[in-house]
Design brief:
286 residues; alpha/beta; TIM Barrel; DNA polymerase, domain 1; seven-stranded mixed β-sheet; binds adenosine monophosphate; binds zinc ion; binds fe (iii) ion
Length: 286
């Protein structure tokens, strides 16, 4: 009895369409999944439809990248139960996506300056939705510039790479206000990616809670036993909802399987029941 509350489709940088993703979730025996594409919820309607067709619960969601404090790594928030037409969120995402366009052209310019004959059109052709760094990585491998996706990130487009360009991000308060206003359940994604020790992570989580954070991902593909235990204790101590997911992206992250992560992931279905109870108590739809 397990679920996966963090997945990506072709609408952002995954390789399965929302329908294929939902079908796979059914095939591997999950009770429910959340579709949480980066900076967009445009695959949600299709996924919900597929959920009805295949008989599996689909939670409408998305993933937001927030500006993180100095010294911290990635700060991402997974939003669950986003409403059908969240006007405020759409405006914010339009701003983010606009920034991505500029960024993508900047990355191309840097790579070309370095003698790589990559084109914007070729990268764009790899994306069905949002164009992101995984599409650059695929193209760099296909051009023979790198031998793997990993190398493409390490040498070129990763955060320490030669062609790294930061992306436009929402400020934490701004993002949390929007999520509160639209009645979404907000979950701090992959807390390990903040790159902080437990004490510093907790301080940051407490700040986010003041802004309305509802929960955190305890179960995650990249969390080892110690991380899972530490984050679970933290969530319980702070009274946060416990969530979890694989961050499945299809073949761009071949080691991560839907629902199973790198093999040992298990996100119990009862966590979803607790989230629903919390929403009902707040008068929010489930
Ligand atoms: P972007 O939103 O364009 O900055 O791209 C972020 C995506 O790149 C996320 O799906 C990350 O998981 C992925 N990513 C970041 N670093 C790496 C890496 N070293 N190897 C593979 N994927 C990565
Ligand atoms: Zn992604
Ligand atoms: Fe993320
Ligand atoms: Fe993700």
């Amino acid at each position: 009895m397990s679920i996966d509350l963090h997945t990506h489709s072709t609408v952002s940088d995954g390789t399965l369409t929302p329908t294929e993703l939902v079908k796979l979730a059914k095939d591997v025996g999950l009770d429910a999944i959340a579709l949480t594409d980066h900076d967009t919820y445009s695959g949600v309607a299709e996924a919900m439809e597929a959920g009805k067709e295949f008989g599996i619960e689909v939670i409408p969601g998305c993933e937001l990248s927030l500006e993180s404090p100095d010294g911290a790594g990635w700060m991402h928030v997974v939003a669950l139960w986003i409403p059908e037409d969240p006007e405020e969120l759409k405006t914010a995402f339009d701003w983010v996506i606009e920034g991505r366009k500029t960024r993508n052209h900047e990355i191309i310019d840097i790579l070309r300056t370095q003698g790589i004959s990559i084109t914007y059109e070729a990268v764009a052709a790899r994306a069905q939705g949002t164009i992101g760094r995984p599409h650059f990585a695929q193209e760099l491998v296909s051009l023979g510039v790198c031998s793997s996706i990993n190398e493409a990130f390490k040498v070129w487009i990763g955060d320490d790479g030669r062609a790294y360009v930061p992306k436009r991000k929402l400020k934490p308060k701004q993002a949390m206000d929007i999520l509160n206003n639209i009645g979404a359940t907000s979950i701090l994604a992959h807390p390990f990616a903040l790159g902080l020790n437990f004490t510093k992570t907790e301080a940051l989580v407490r700040e986010l809670m003041k802004m309305g954070l509802d929960g955190m991902e305890v179960h995650y593909s990249e969390h080892n036993e110690a991380a899972t235990k530490g984050f679970k204790e933290m969530a319980e101590r702070l009274g946060l909802l416990v969530s979890g997911g694989s961050d499945f992206h299809g073949t761009v992250k071949p080691k991560i399987s839907l629902g199973k992560g790198k093999g040992g992931l298990h996100v119990p279905t009862e966590l979803l029941e607790k989230m629903k109870a919390d929403r009902r108590a707040k008068g929010l739809p489930v």
